[in-house]
Each structure stands twice: as C-alpha cells, then as structure tokens.
Amino acid sequence: MNVRPVALLLTCGLAAPACAETLTLKISTDAACIVLLDEQPVGQVEPGTPFTLETTAGDHSVGCLSRDYPGAMATATRLGSGTQSINFAPAATWARFTSDGSGWLADADTGLRWHLQGSADELTWTAAGEWCRSLGGRLPTREELQRLHVHGRDRSPCGDGLFCGIPHQLTLASRFVWTGDEFEGGQAIISGLAGQKPSAQSVPKEQTGLRALCVAP
Fold this sequence. Notes:
By secondary structure, the protein is mostly beta strands. Helix content is 11%, strand content 39%.
C-alpha cells in the first residue's frame, strides 16, 4: 500500500505542541488514474492497489484523472478529519462513451448519440429545437438527460467555473439546458446538470439564458 503524506498541506508549527488534526484518505479505484487533491496531482493509483493520502483536516476535493481516457476524471469531496475511504468506480462509464469523429458521442448503454458541442448562444425553447433539428437531432427528454448524468464518475466544464456531471467529451456553456418536454401554461422543462444529481424545473418557453444539448438516435 502506498502512503503519501502531503507535506505542504500539513500544518505543524515549530512552537506548537503537536501537528494539526489530519485527514487520512484511503483511495481505491477500478481504473488506472492520477490522484488529484484540490486539483493538484499527488500520486498514481492502480486497480486493486489502494493509495493512502494524508492531509490537513477540512474540506477537500479528490480526483481520479484517467491515464487511459484523456480528460476523463471521477471526483469526490471529503470533509472533516480521521480516516475516510473513497472507492472510485469510473471504468465502465469511461468506456461507455465513444466519439467516432463525426461530431457526435455514442452512448453504448442507451444507443443514443449526443452532439459534442452544446449551443454557444442563449436560445429560447423553440429556437433550441430548431437548432437541434438543423444538426440532425432533437432536444432530449428529461429522462434521457438523467441517464446522461454520470454522478461523479466524470465531469465537463459548463460555464461560470462550474463542472457538470456529464462525459468530459461534451462541451456546454451553461449548466442549464432545455429538454423537449413541454409543461402546462406555455412552459417547458429545463435540466440542471451541475449537481450530484440532475435537477429539473419548468420555465416559460421564451426564457433567456438557456442552452441546448442535442441528441439523436
């Protein structure tokens, strides 16, 4: 077992009677990856070989950056002190999505294809649907976006310094995207993809500040 103390993050003053309280992380994974602590690389981990990391107590982000799928990264957050375990299991998710160079990302689980680029411009619901049709696709349903969300096993930047829980190959300018699902009173459903789980709410179809992510069979 590898043990990696992160010396720069341990606080132990010369005059202090003891070191600051620490957090010990026991990390395991089913995929070869580089371990990141607060976005900084601190070591590597192999499937079946646990990696132990010590740092100061507190709030830390931990990442498992793939060595086989460039850009893919599973993430977790840990709080407090003592000894805690993180079991990353991103291998199936990283292998699930593939791009053939046509501008679309294939999902082996659902058979759907997702356009690699979400809309750069803000679009109303009607304009978003027209834009997707011009690409040979359509707006996804709420359920399809829920299945696209990978719950911490990968991520992609989605505007305002945030990351969305979607495959890293996809590019979004906003965490909120239109679905094709209509709602009463001239409204439609939008989905938020930046949380641990996707959110949904209804808004007027003429709402601004929203983008489109297109899907095709």
